[in-house]
Design goal:
The protein has 203 residues and is mainly α. It is built from nine helices and no strands.
Length: 203
C-alpha cells in the first residue's frame, strides 16, 4: 500500500460507516413515522452526524428514502422449478417471520406502507409488489385464475406483515413460526389446487 493509499483508506472507511449509519437511522425513522413525519435533522441526530452529510451522500431526503426502502430478495427465493407453496413458504420464513434488517426497522415493503400516502411511494410499492413478487408467483400457478390466486397469496403475506409488525396483533407476533408456516402452507395449497367454493344454489 502506498502512502497515499494509507492516508485515504481511513476516510473511505469513515464515509462507508457514516453512510451506513444514516441508512440505518433512516430505516428506523421512516418505519416508525413515515416519510412526511421524518426530518433529515432527526435522522442525522440519530446517526450522530451533521444533517449536511445526508445531502452529501444521498443528494436529498427522497433519495435517502429510496435507498432505505431498497430490499434484496433473500437468496434462494425464486429458484427455478419451485411451486407457489415453496415460494410462499420462503417468503414467510425470510421476510414475514425473518429477523429485522441490519440496523433495525422493518422489511422495506412495510416501510413503504408507512408512507403510502405519497403518490410516488404508492407507485414504488405497486412496482415492488406487482412486478417483482406477484408476477413471479403467478408464473408458478398452473391453470386458470393464476394472477388472481397469486394476488390472494400476496394479500395474505403482506397482511401478515402488517398485522405482525405494524398493527402488533395479539397472537401472530408471538406465534410458533413452524405453526404459522404450516397454516400458510395449507392456505396456499388450497389456492394452488384451484378449488372453488361449492355453488350455494346447487343440490
Amino acid at each position: 500500500m502506498t502512502y497515499a493509499d494509507f492516508m485515504n483508506a481511513p476516510k473511505r472507511r469513515d464515509r462507508a460507516a457514516t453512510r451506513s449509519a444514516l441508512l440505518d437511522a433512516a430505516r428506523r425513522r421512516f418505519a416508525e413515522h413515515g416519510y412526511d413525519g421524518t426530518g433529515v435533522r432527526e435522522i442525522a441526530a440519530d446517526a450522530g452526524v451533521d444533517a449536511t452529510l445526508i445531502f452529501r451522500y444521498f443528494g436529498s431526503k427522497r433519495h435517502l428514502f429510496d435507498e432505505a426502502a431498497n430490499g434484496e430478495v433473500p437468496e434462494g427465493l425464486g429458484a427455478p422449478g419451485a411451486g407457489p407453496a415453496e415460494l410462499a413458504d420462503a417468503l414467510v420464513r425470510e421476510v414475514v417471520l425473518g429477523d429485522a434488517p441490519a440496523g433495525g426497522g422493518e422489511h422495506p415493503l412495510l416501510l413503504m406502507l408507512r408512507s403510502a400516502g405519497r403518490p410516488e411511494v404508492r407507485a414504488r410499492l405497486h412496482e415492488e409488489v406487482c412486478d417483482r413478487y406477484l408476477a413471479d408467483m403467478a408464473d408458478r400457478f398452473a391453470g386458470e385464475d393464476a394472477a388472481l390466486r397469486a394476488e390472494l397469496v400476496g394479500a395474505l403475506l403482506l397482511g401478515m406483515g402488517v398485522m405482525r409488525d405494524v398493527v402488533g396483533s395479539p397472537v401472530l407476533p408471538g406465534a410458533d413460526p413452524d405453526r404459522v408456516r404450516a397454516l400458510v402452507a395449507a392456505m396456499v395449497a388450497a389456492l394452488e389446487a384451484g378449488g372453488r367454493p361449492a355453488d350455494p344454489t346447487g343440490p
